[in-house]
Design brief:
about 260 residues; alpha/beta; Rossmann fold; 2 domains; 6-stranded parallel β-sheet; 8 strands; about 50% helix; about 15% strand; elongated
Length: about 260
């Protein structure tokens, strides 16, 4: 299927080029897409702008977050249980925590999918039964509660252009640990969490262990990242994004009118 869709994409490139040529402003959903379109179709900087495709509802936004200083420190994963989301890597990373650190943590996995049975089996193999909870699919209101009860959000997905769950976690005041790729690598900054270069499965697993350990042991750092996450998340709220779209429209129209007047 992948080769089929790539072939379709190549066949449509002339149509893309014609569309981009006519557009007064192009909105790219990620920095990767922005650079790809600019380079492939020779689009000048003035005609293309970064505008993340995802956003969050105001119901996710949290004004304050009480940082847990007592055990357990709650780790959270939200997403489909499919291979590229790499929940198995997170489970492995938790198993590698030093005993005194692992004793302080608990992981909740919210979501379902084809890997759930194998992930549950892996948890049993690693003797993590009391440390990992599978919540299955839950509604949005319950998901928000899981975010608000958590202390750290771990999302090791290696193929993620959107990653709205990371925005949601940040809105609820969670420091985030993610691979430095796709949209999730752009949402998270050094002030709001940790980004790990996904150079290999082993490296991602071990670095995830290391970053979890840092956040579990450093209450002050968790607090600072929590505050910065909530501040950053306001940029992703739909009302804020709608206002930005309006500003882009006004600016583009003004530029077009100025060009036509010359």
């Amino acid at each position: 299927y992948l080769n089929f869709f790539r072939a379709i994409g190549r066949a449509l490139i002339p149509d893309y080029a014609a569309t981009y040529k006519k557009a007064d402003k192009i909105l790219a959903g990620s920095t990767y897409t922005l650079n790809l379109v600019k380079n492939m179709f020779a689009i000048p900087d003035s005609r293309i702008e970064l505008f993340y495709e995802n956003g969050i509802a105001s119901s996710f936004l949290t004004e304050t977050k009480k940082v847990t200083k007592d055990s357990p420190i709650n780790l959270l994963f939200v997403g489909r249980l499919v291979p590229y989301k790499c929940a198995d890597i997170l489970i492995e990373a938790v198993s590698r925590l030093e005993p005194n650190v692992r004793e302080k943590t608990h992981l909740t996995i919210v979501g379902d999918g084809q890997e759930r049975n194998s992930l549950e089996e892996r948890v049993r193999e690693l003797n993590l039964g009391e440390k990992v909870k599978f919540a299955g699919w839950v509604g949005q209101e319950e998901t928000v509660e899981y975010y608000r009860q958590a202390d750290i959000f771990c999302f090791p997905s290696i193929r993620e252009f959107g990653g709205a769950v990371v925005m949601e976690a940040m809105a609820c005041g969670l420091p985030c640990i993610v691979p430095n790729n796709g949209g999730i690598g752009e949402y998270v900054t050094e002030e709001t969490g940790f980004r790990i270069e996904p150079t290999s499965r082993e490296y991602l697993t071990q670095e995830l262990t290391n970053k979890i350990k840092i956040l579990v042991e450093d209450d002050e750092l968790r607090q600072k990242m929590s505050v910065k996450s909530m501040e950053k998340a306001k940029e992703f709220e739909w009302d804020c994004k709608a206002q930005k779209i309006v500003e882009i429209y006004h600016k583009t129209i003004a530029e077009k009118q100025a060009a036509l007047s010359h």
